[in-house]
């Protein structure tokens, strides 16, 4: 229906997604006011919104926009608890980029 | 104790239960019918098998014409399962419409209300919660949606990733063949240089019935399986019938036929455009 994707990415890939809405699954390393540091194959700084309820040490899924300074402006977050297999998450990130046909609608603002 | 297992001929235990029914018939996964021969022509259950997909695959699924069956990776599909986060819930008089988002796209899912059942038991979902849907692909006034049979909350987040891996696996199964059937991408189209190389040497386990199709492209396999189930008899079926039955273009059918003739899997009968399965 809506040909819009929020591709699953990691800290390794974030610099090619500036300006796009993305999804990151990672572990909350640090929580300071309205910013959090998330580990997902590299550290990502997340600027949280009001609704965000992150727990330090837990897994989290955030959806948000990648800003020019490579932080993410979070629009939506889900606390995933402690039972998260990060290796599987990273495999899905790899597959997302290997088989874009299945996971990602092309974006108008940038190709690739 | 160990006798009761070991004595039965070791590995034969599990093999018979699969192999006996499957015959030549693709091992049951894609061509669900275990009694291929007894099904009426072209009306197999293959399109009723449940396929794990991403929402983007559903949005990209194409129909040859309005009301035609949906196809993903050129395989007919109607029953699907997928996961997604609930982005909107709108109760209607006859159904509840959900908008689900799995990161690959957004899709409408309708769960019809059962008037006979005074359901207080209907589970309600929270926004942004992950759920898994089992349902049927539908199109109404060009508005694609899934009619849900069941929607259940995902209680373990790992199921989301697991599902995406499974959807990828099934996609690769249909586009590149079963694992073990192709050494990497090598199983190229119509690689008829090694006429006998494809089968016989199938030492790496996995559906023996698929062995002889191991070097055949996806379209060739589809042709073969359809023809096998279609019961054309000794006279075989014309290229137009096959094209209609498989939903492949005449060109594709002819290309697939050449691919299948050279290793001796099918043969031409009354004329060059009529094919039958070569039994062995």
Automatic annotation (TrEMBL), chain A:
Family matches, as Gene3D superfamilies: Nucleic acid-binding proteins
Family matches, as CDD domains: RPA3
GO molecular function: damaged DNA binding; single-stranded DNA binding
Highest rank taxon of the organism: Eukaryota
GO biological process terms, semicolon-separated: base-excision repair; DNA replication; double-strand break repair via homologous recombination; mismatch repair; nucleotide-excision repair
One Pfam family this sequence matches: Rep_fac-A_3
Compartments reported by the entry: Nucleus
One Gene Ontology CC term in the entry: DNA replication factor A complex
Alphabetic keyword roster: Nucleus
Family membership noted in the UniProt record: Belongs to the replication factor A protein 3 family.
Protein name (Swiss-Prot/TrEMBL): Replication factor A protein 3
Source organism of this protein record: Pseudomassariella vexata
UniProtKB/TrEMBL annotation, chain B:
InterPro entries (UniProt xref): NA-bd_OB-fold, NA-bd_OB_tRNA, RFA2-like, Rfa2/RPA32, RPA_C, WH-like_DNA-bd_sf, WH_DNA-bd_sf
Name of the protein this chain belongs to: Replication protein A C-terminal domain-containing protein
Localization terms from the record: Nucleus
One GO molecular-function entry: single-stranded DNA binding
Domain OB: 80-146
Species of origin: Pseudomassariella vexata
Pfam assignment, any one: RPA_C
Domain Replication protein A C-terminal: 171-273
SUPFAM superfamilies per UniProt: Nucleic acid-binding proteins, Winged helix' DNA-binding domain
GO BP of this protein: DNA replication; double-strand break repair via homologous recombination; nucleotide-excision repair
This protein's GO CC annotations: chromosome, telomeric region; DNA replication factor A complex; RNA polymerase I complex; site of double-strand break
Lineage: Eukaryota, Fungi, Dikarya, Ascomycota, Pezizomycotina
UniProt entry tagged with the keyword DNA-binding: yes
Family: Belongs to the replication factor A protein 2 family.
Assigned keywords, A-Z: DNA replication, DNA-binding, Nucleus
